[in-house]
Amino acid sequence: MITPIAKKYANALMKSADKDIDNISDALEKISLAYNIKKTEYILNSFVDKQKIVNLLIDISDNSSKILSNFLNVLESRKRLSLLPQISHALSLSVADKNNKYIGYVYSKEDIKQNTLLVLEKNISKKFNKDISLVYIKNNFEGICLDIEMLNMQISFSKNQIKNRLLDNILKSI
């Protein structure tokens, strides 16, 4: 969940780094991935000099832009470095809205051909008037599930759901 404070920081970053926003968004995504590592969490919560922590985050991001450096320093001075994953997520949503490009995921137990995925991509993009790219992820879901988190959209058809509805209709007709 994205807090209102994280949204404000993401909006401020969008306004100040208009031309370089894609690179900064990628850099923040790298940093937020580092937050998933326990050692990084220990370093961020330790008594290490705060400027060294900011320098570490800049090194992780592989982006030495002045805007990113200043942004991280502002977050550090306000003790908000822990919000970086939320800010990164909010920023990626804002960048997707700005570029009108979204990523969706298709989950299924069955293999889905690339041609089918492209047709699905084209039809959904046309329906929502947005540029949507779909990525197939094989899992144990009995049916098919389409999830576009950036648009808060999820469509799923499961074999059990269809079977239950069919049985209900048969029982109602008897």
UniProtKB/TrEMBL annotation:
<keyword id="KW-0378">Hydrolase</keyword>
<dbReference type="GO" id="GO:0046933">
    <property type="term" value="F:proton-transporting ATP synthase activity, rotational mechanism"/>
</dbReference>
<dbReference type="InterPro" id="IPR026015">
    <property type="entry name" value="ATP_synth_OSCP/delta_N_sf"/>
</dbReference>
<dbReference type="Pfam" id="PF00213">
    <property type="entry name" value="OSCP"/>
</dbReference>
<keyword id="KW-0472">Membrane</keyword>
<dbReference type="GO" id="GO:0016020">
    <property type="term" value="C:membrane"/>
</dbReference>
<dbReference type="GO" id="GO:0016787">
    <property type="term" value="F:hydrolase activity"/>
</dbReference>
<keyword id="KW-0066">ATP synthesis</keyword>
<keyword id="KW-0406">Ion transport</keyword>
<keyword id="KW-0375">Hydrogen ion transport</keyword>
<keyword id="KW-0813">Transport</keyword>
<dbReference type="InterPro" id="IPR000711">
    <property type="entry name" value="ATPase_OSCP/dsu"/>
</dbReference>
<protein>
    <submittedName>
        <fullName>ATP synthase delta chain</fullName>
        <ecNumber>3.6.3.14</ecNumber>
    </submittedName>
</protein>
